[in-house]
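[audit] Reproducing an earlier prediction to check determinism. Same input, same settings, fresh worker. If the tokens differ from the archived copy the diff job will pick it up downstream; this log only records the rerun itself.
[audit] input (473 residues):
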Amino acid sequence: MKILITGTTGYIAKRLVLNLLEKNHDLVCCVRDLDRIPDEIEHHKNITFLKVDFLDVNNITFPKDIDAAYYLIHSMSTNASNFESLEKTCALNFKKLIEETTAKHVIYLSGIVNDNSLSKHLKSRFEVEKTLQSNKYALTTFRGGIVVGSGSASFEIIRDIVEKLPVMIAPKWLNTKTQPIAVRDVLSYLERALCKEELYNQSFDIGGPEVLTYKEMLLQFAAVRGFKRYIFTLPVLSPKLSSYWLYFVTSTSFKLAQALVDSMKIEVIAKPNNLYKTLNIVPITYQKAVSLAFQKIEQNDVVSSWKDAMSSGVFNDQLAKHIQLPEFGCFTDVRVRDIKDEDYTLNKIWSIGGQNGWYSFNWLWKIRGYVDKVFGGVGLRRGRTHNTHLEAGDPLDFWRVLLADKKEKRLLLFAEMKLPGEAWLEFKITNGKLQQRAVFRPKGVLGRFYWFSVLPFHAFVFKGMINSLINKK
């Protein structure tokens, strides 16, 4: 079967692609940025990649012989204030393009929309569902609850809260009921519904086997981890204060924190149906989903993360626009060292950040991360998706990976912290030497003041980092 997939680099779609490839389907994967194609699928013989920005589809056509398609685009953490109109435009453009093919079936993953008082994001998803309806193909919509799995936004946020706070003074929305669903169950629904005629032109709520409050989710998560946690809820925390609470305690961006708080005030419970029987799915419990997620983490086998999304930071452009380092109007810090063991240095470069830290004066990097959080930046809490693997588009603390070419022995990072300018950090090995280059392009007087204010720290931070990269302990 020939299947078109949108949102290829997203949390759900990236996993779905790998599952569909195991079934030997031919895939047409839509991506906004060809530089962000995941390494594990980039050269797969059963995939054709199509560069598409669904906000601008001029001169874009889909292959005519498509059998089915997945619409997996949403903007939960976007910075755009008019995300509703942007989502509708994307849906309309997709619909126009897919109607010109032979596709019989489109599957859309949405959110549960049963409450009379919906958040802006859930309202938008409901509008997208109505927009996607067509006389040319059948639409099946799955309305899911909170997705639980390694790398999911809800999992990582709950993990941050539980592991950092033995005692929690929390907002009252922790008493709101919800129905979480394991990511593997979501993928099962998406796969098994493919071209099932009995599901055509219908919408189904999908959730796990339990209805839990957010407080119960936190406590059950703690139980899986072997922690004892105490939670006290207060009615005085406003939505804005709740957003700040979530933002400072977890790795989420402030925009995503606002969207989550907006959604968490509303009960998200699935309407009963027998779809799990129709598709032969046995939904797993919340605690089982958490346990399985940690198995993936311990095996360093996290396929995708919500942090991989460009909207988890401040980066909105194509990666290629920033790969060429600027030369004029910039300040630089360049250091070169002879390499004693090239493999050791290369592997250490590819392991930088996250739990491994930055190898020199790591406490200063942490302070910089805290300062970034205070000023509304991403801070260091995003960490990294994999301990030893990097690819273009990955988050790396408050950096974004622009280029990760181990064969060419070059790693290029772009800063996503709050800065009065733009910053790059490059590691490159050539002719037995390691070159470490920091480049800063200031914006106005403030940018120049910033560079000279941090310049004294470069003498030992950057010097210590490059020395650590070449010297074995």
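[audit] rerun output stored. Observation attached for the diff report: Residues 444-470 form the longest helix (27 residues).
[audit] end
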